[in-house]
Write a structure and sequence with these properties.
With 244 residues, the chain is of the alpha/beta class. The protein is 28% helix and 29% strand. The strands form 2 sheets. Strands 3, 4, 5, 6, 7, 8, 9, 10 and 11 form a 9-stranded mixed sheet that branches. It comes from Senegalia massiliensis.
Length: 244
């Protein structure tokens, strides 16, 4: 099952495991934070746009009673790795990985029927530095194959009325995010800023939006990743499940 430079990691959630390439793009804290931020009702249908190796669907499945999850991933090699992870966990029926361009999601998943869409998208715009368009890490981090509006448009097409869109991004893109969400009738409802530690500027923002929702934005209390001693804060430990 494993290919060169691959390993199997235990995600420490109900025995679930994931295949990752140690020389490629492995999941980080942002994927864990957005999966924890999602609010998902029982028997929901969920779509993860830009699923990568499938970590967000695995965490969501482990934490929630979900009917079906679709992971959308355009990179063939990465999507195939995610598919093998689902087989490893005997979840290939419950979590379906589609190797397609996310801009074509509505051609494979019916419009206006999805309860929740989640995305941990490329953070950097196409103008942020020179990148190799064939590099898997670059594709994951830069808007090479899709941009922010592509993701928001795809989410809007497949979400049911009042369906929820959850995303993690960088605060410096916040003006663009709000503008595009409202342009496509996904009303921002909740934001939570993530700080490396107290005294530093936020480096991530968690966002919840509702399709055709009424205007009312709530800012949740900040989340600090590290304390002044360089250790994970209690809230991060609770998210990772490291506390008894």
């Amino acid at each position: 099952m494993l290919k060169e430079n691959e390993r199997i990691d235990d995600i420490e959630l109900k025995g679930l495991k994931i295949i990752q390439n140690k020389d490629g793009f492995c999941f980080g804290i942002d994927a864990v934070l957005i999966a924890n931020f999602c609010e998902i009702k029982k028997n929901a249908t969920v779509v993860d746009l830009g699923t990568g190796t499938g970590i967000i669907p695995l965490i969501l499945w482990g934490k929630n009673n979900i009917r079906k999850i679709y992971g959308i991933e355009v990179q063939k090699e990465v999507a195939e790795m995610a598919q093998r992870s689902m087989r490893l966990n005997n979840l290939e029926e419950q979590i379906e990985i589609l190797n397609i361009d996310l801009k074509d999601t509505d051609k494979y998943i019916k419009r206006d029927l999805v309860d929740v869409v989640v995305s941990n998208p490329p953070y950097m715009s196409s103008g942020d530095g020179i990148v190799n368009p064939s590099d898997k890490k670059a594709i994951s981090r830069h808007e090479i194959l899709c941009n922010l509006e592509d993701i928001i448009v795809s989410a809007k097409k497949i979400l049911k009325d009042n369906g929820k869109f959850f995303m993690i991004h960088r605060p410096h893109r916040l003006a663009d995010i709000v503008e595009l969400l409202r342009k496509h009738r996904l009303e921002p409802k909740t934001m939570k800023f993530v700080y490396p530690k107290m005294g530093k500027s936020p480096n991530m923002v968690l966002i919840k939006a509702s399709k055709f929702g009424n205007p009312e934005l709530k800012i949740k209390p900040p989340l600090y990743v590290y304390d002044q001693n360089g250790n994970y804060t209690k809230e991060i430990d609770e998210i990772y499940g490291r506390l008894d």
